[in-house]
Amino acid sequence: MAADPTLVGLDVGTTGVKAIAISTTGEVLARAERGYPLSIPQPGWAEQDPEDWCDAAQSALDDLSVEAASIGLSGQMHGLVVLDGGDRVLRPAILWNDQRTAAECAEIEERVGLARLIELTGNRALPGFTAPKLLWLRNHEPETYAQIRHVLLPKDYVRLRMTGEHAIDAADASGTLLFDVARRRWSEEVCDALGIPTEWLPPAHESTEIGAAGDQAAGALGVGVVEPGILSVVLGTSGVVFAALPEYRADPQARLHVFCHAAPGSWHAMGVMLSAAGSLRWFRDEVAGESYDELTREAGEWPPGAEGLLFQPYLAGERTPHADPNARAAFVGLSLRHNRGSMVRALLEGVAYGQRDSLELLRELGAEADVGRVSGGGARSPLWLKIVSSVLNVTLERTAAEEGAAFGAALLGGVRAGIFADVHEAVAACVRVRDRIEPDPGWAAVYDEGYARFRKLYPALRPLEDA
To answer: Where in the chain is the domain with CATH 3.30.420.40?
Structure first.
């Protein structure tokens, strides 16, 4: 009797590679993780050596010690890897969280026209995206730019090193700002307007054809979000509220990102906040010096609303709903009664309010859901989950496997290998819900009022950015 095939997923993240081996019923057989450094050569810059990804990926695969029937790939989106004609890396990769390209973003929106850019790509020009990085190289490193013959994203460079293949999936290509998201192909109009040769860009495929997707699409697949009706709610360093769409539909103001989904012929919209669980980590590391368990225990001693204390979670600027890299965080409403626990409570609630901003915009696009699949480090806190569920007024579900993007990559690899007929069969076979968190009606009423107050914070504090 033949052994059950083993499916492997690799997620090439910002801090390291995560690898997972699963069975065809979703049982986790092995896990591995290998880290690598982040370079910050100047304030606001973020770079990595692509060879570090490849070394870590191979080491993680070795650590799994399995015979893989298929290998799927996921990874950090938007990062720029530039190669010469011999596929040699020309400079360190510029990552998604690099903020150097504000002038190039303005240049793109002027060249293409903001309304047309949103119509074609589903997004406006933001510093994290790939196209502004290419223009920055042209403007600031012309010698390097002149040598470019190939452009890849992080996980796709790992694929090149593993297989020799130049390729990208539609989901990840959607985050380059060079992709016609509605037609699921490179946009000659945008590339021509920006003077970027289309022959630099790898062939674009559906995720199931090459067993790969960007981390958000793969992560949503990994928790079973492949069609409208269920949200993906991510409480990671950044926060995401993600909904599958029945058709391509861009937000006219581009407050949400609209990308191709990993399921062929489908799309998704998502709101992204830059400091979700990252806000709690900052408070723990820089202010409190206590464990997460102790901080959330203290927060649990305070009632919903923390007696009027609010937290605006814009520690690293913000993306949704305010595309403002200069936005800053704030505690508002402190009194002599407030203590550390109340500040943590307000912080947890402020992040939840930020995610509700994204949910309200998704609803404007026609995405309706009363269930969200939650993942990320923050999902380990029962208190935070109850807060988020009550703020969103959505039932949250946790799945049996917590690996998210790596798990979704393993499923995509299985579809590519013919082990599953499609992503729907893969999800039905492998994704299982382990528990549910229901909104608290009493808390939800308090949070409706709190959210109305939260929405007034940014307009009130925004003028201080220019002071």
So the answer is: 7-223, 277-398+435-466
The reported pLDDT for the residue numbered 433 is: 96
156 is catalytic: no
Asked if residue 145 lies in contact with residue 161, where contact means CB atoms within 8 angstroms, the answer is no
Residues 407, 431: Cα–Cα separation, whole Å: 9
What b/e readout covers 15-31, taking b as 16+ CB neighbours within 10 angstroms?
ebbbbbbbebebeeeeb
CA gap 256, 322 in Å, rounded: 10
DSSP per-residue codes, 261-322: -SSTT-EEEEEEES-SHHHHHHIIIIII-S-HHHHHHHHTTSPTTGGG-EEE--BTBB-SS-
Q: What is the pLDDT of residue 1?
A: 46
b/e burial code for range 179-193 (CB count within 10 A of at least 16 → b)? bbbbebebbeebbeb
Task: Assign domain 277-398+435-466 to its CATH superfamily.
Answer: ATPase, nucleotide binding domain (3.30.420.40)
What's the pLDDT at 467? 63
Element (H, E) at 218: helix 215-222
Whether residue 321 has a cis bond before it, omega within 30° of 0 = yes
Residue 174 has pLDDT above 70, yes or no: yes
* Predicted confidence (pLDDT) per residue in 277-286, tens digit: 999 999 999 9
CA distances from 62 to 59, 65, 409 (A): 5, 6, 18
Structure tokens at 417: 């290998």
Mapped onto helix, strand or coil, the DSSP state of residue 335 is coil
Q: Which one is catalytic: 215, 251, 324, 370? A: 215
- CATH assignment of 7-223, given 3.30.540.10, 3.30.420.40, 3.40.50.300, 3.40.50.2300? 3.30.420.40
Quickly list DSSP for 130-189. Answer: HHHHHHHHHHH-HHHHHH--EEE-HHHHHHHHHH----EEHHHHGGGT-EETTTTEE-HH
What are the tens digits of pLDDT across the range 310-361? Answer: 999 999 888 899 988 889 999 999 999 999 999 999 999 999 999 999 999 9
Identify the helix (H) or strand (E) that includes residue 231. strand 230-235
